[in-house]
Amino acid sequence: MDPSRDNPIIRFTTFWWGIGTFFIFAVLFAVIWLFARSEPTTLEDAAAKPRYETKAKIDAAQAASLTADAIKAATRVVGKQLAASKPAAIETPAQVVSGSETSKKLAAAPAVDTSAIDAPAATDEPIDPAVMALGKASFIICGACHGQNGEGGPIAPPLAASEWVTGPVSNLIRIQLRGLQGPITVAGKEYDMPGGMAALSYQTDEQIAGVLTYIRNSFGNKASAVKPEQVAALRGEVGKPQVTAAELTKP
Ligand code: HEC
User: Fold this and answer.
1) Maximal CA-CA distance, the chain
2) Ligand 1 surroundings by CB, under 6 angstroms
3) For the chain, which domains are there?
4) pLDDT per position as a tens digit, 87-108
């Protein structure tokens, strides 16, 4: 610094000018910061306010309807019930494993009287086309083994011209609900397919009645329609071992 200017008064004024300038900038920045702060800069910031307002509203509503103590008490009750619960000893027919207790019990159960189901029905009654259509759709699975025209094949006997198909209705229902195994003579020829036929009981009463009505009235066969009630009457046999030809009513 110029030594001639080095006097206390100049130092004093310079000092205050410095403080003053610093203060002016401080005020300026404070004003800019104040205005800039009130404008949300990101979408997150813009959304934050209504979000907090909504959360406060929900919290208030929840607090008004359900107290924290009530939730705690309910949790304790539900927890105790869950801890004390045991698996229900219920087997649905579809879950019956062959050789299991349920399967043995089912096998020992007396056979349903089928005389009502097999009572001779008029064969000249017209068949409902809707039932035939449903039956045709449900038959696709049967056709995989028996042939789409019921002609039979290397893995299953024919349904066309089979005395079983046009014979007693209860036989057909049993074959579908329980499956079939062991030797069976169809149209003069004996079949004994390894493993036999598996049950197809997953189809509804309407589907089974439809598919059986369909095979009884297709491929040159002609016989009475099968009613869903007749299928329902034998539902209790689902889970029994595969039926054998010897157990069925002679066609
Ligand atoms: C996986 C192959 C397979 C499917 C699918 C199948 N069956 Fe069978 N079906 C057989 C076999 C095999 C036999 C002969 C069983 C035996 O040897 O004891 C048979 C026998 C029969 C018989 C008695 C014999 C005869 O030919 O008249 C009828 C009736 C019958 N099935 C109807 C049906 C119907 C209805 C369906 C569809 C809902 C169906 N089957 C689906 C394999 C099958």
Assistant:
1) 140
2) 141-142, 144-146, 155-159, 162, 164-165, 172, 175-176, 180-182, 184, 186, 191-193, 196-198, 200, 211, 215
3) 3-84 (no CATH), 100-247 (1.10.760.10)
4) 655 556 556 677 777 777 777 7
